[in-house]
Write a structure and sequence with these properties.
The chain has no helices and five strands. With 118 residues, it is mainly beta.
Amino acid sequence: SLSFNQLKQIPPEICNFKSLIKMQLACNEISYVPSEIFQLPALEHIDLSHNSISSLPEALLGELPPALAVLDLSHNLLTDLPSYFENSGIKQLDLAHNRLKSVPQCVGTLSQLQSLNI
């Protein structure tokens, strides 16, 4: 876990960990998320809560990792989610305490979603 470390950016070396299953970067000062994070093939759980993220990458070079099941983006500055989240295998999505004005359109396409917190 790299939570509670006052990180201003995600260490680029994390993108080299192709077997990484769980990424915990909560409670830092991260404002930018590189698209490579969403392309780690084994990644199942991402916790980027309690940061300063105002947007996510607009596009990816491929699809989200098929194993990605838990995504916590709560307590950030997000106003929407990019379209690449559509039809993904996400089961738990936490978007609470952001700047959303409506439910992101892609949420309606998450057929495996079991838990949604907005």
